[in-house]
Amino acid sequence: GNSVTQMEGPVTLSEEAFLTINCTYTATGYPSLFWYVQYPGEGLQLLLKATKADDKGSNKGFEATYRKETTSFHLEKGSVQVSDSAVYFCALSDRTGGFKTIFGAGTRLFVKA
Amino acid sequence: NAGVTQTPKFQVLKTGQSMTLQCAQDMNHNSMYWYRQDPGMGLRLIYYSASEGTTDKGEVPNGYNVSRLNKREFSLRLESAAPSQTSVYFCASSEPGLSQETQYFGPGTRLLVL
To answer: A86 to chain B nearest CA, in Å?
Structure first.
């Protein structure tokens, strides 16, 4: 079945540091891939997405590239801010899975000033 | 445009009590979902409704029931609450075939079962 594995946290960085959060997936079909972000006390919200191989999703300085050959969708940001402190979820949605979304376990990011 | 709304925000129950969590969306989406979020477990799908009039079990349906009241509303009922149901519950909606299944989430209901 479909699954998503992402790096365990928490990840603690200083402001302006480079961020990478690893995500790999297993899927039987051709999934769409997502990163969602959850700020404290809130629900999840879409950060970025990519729908086919080699697509790059980007938003708010975050980027992720859909790599079919390595089944990966790693999240990166060149310079993090304190306001980026949140939990980040990698996810996939696949037509063969009835369009149900499968989420990774989440990675908590702390950014220190 | 409120998006997805959930009530209540917080609830404390005693073991064996029942309650219904309410969810409504104003985006005219066909699909709606209930998830629970537990530390280290990510989000787990409890039930979903692909369209009005249909509901299906997700990964962890035991102890829960759902009702898709109309296109806007999707409720989750705990008939006899247990401490293992202490969690944060999120409702979400999406439109199949559009936006490659982006899901829109409510703010969550924090439930404590004593």
So the answer is: 14
